[in-house]
């Protein structure tokens, strides 16, 4: 029997509710309805008075979470879509992120952001917000790309005393499956070498890990060995693993689904150049979604985001330098 990515998220929440009385869930339609994507299906019945429906006010949801976390609870907040978290931006970056710095009192809350695009979702339900939140000191930003990480990184996020932005990718919810939730368990802040190689390094995260692996497998047919690094978290960012990989390959392509301007890929390239310029045999490159709002039409959406084809093309240009 296989376990899906969203099964892992639900099982992690059930385990947390079962084992830690400080944990509660709060979000729009998550109790009776089980959430927009059914990530909390059945949990309100299994854990009475621990799973609560919220008003349609992301600002109020995060305000409540900050207050209860200050008082010792460990809230998990579900945003229906990552895009909607901008309504709670003040609570997240001006209250939660700064509170420990200002007062010495931690704010251990976790915000689940259903992130990234799916065909037909359009500009209001497809955004990747990780770069925005990673900009602010005090926040941890995680981006699980596997079933095991979806499970273990949620457990680890709730255990942290810092506020965590947990970016779960909607495209992986039911497509990505594994035999078990118990894969290798790395700590938050440590990247993983998904596929070893020697000719070029692809650094990526979230759903793009799988697209990068597909691109690498296609290039393998032509004799190229592409190393794929899954960052797993973008704040903290594991540059030691990135630089070690670039030292082996001499070439870097950073791939992300978010918009290109000032994003995670830009940070990876900038820090590689400043900390590992001597390791490079070619100018480092990055590939992101196009710098436009996310289109509705499935064919336009496919052309908007990186794909195995566009990643492969970028790698061939890099390899030919």
UniProtKB/TrEMBL annotation:
Residue ranges occupied by any Transketolase-like pyrimidine-binding domain in the UniProt entry: 3-175
Protein name in the entry: Alpha-ketoacid dehydrogenase subunit beta
UniProt KW keywords: Oxidoreductase, Thiamine pyrophosphate
Lineage: superkingdom: Bacteria
Necessary cofactors: thiamine diphosphate
SMART domains: Transket_pyr (SM00861)
Gene3D superfamilies recorded: 3.40.50.920, 3.40.50.970
Source species: Luteolibacter ambystomatis
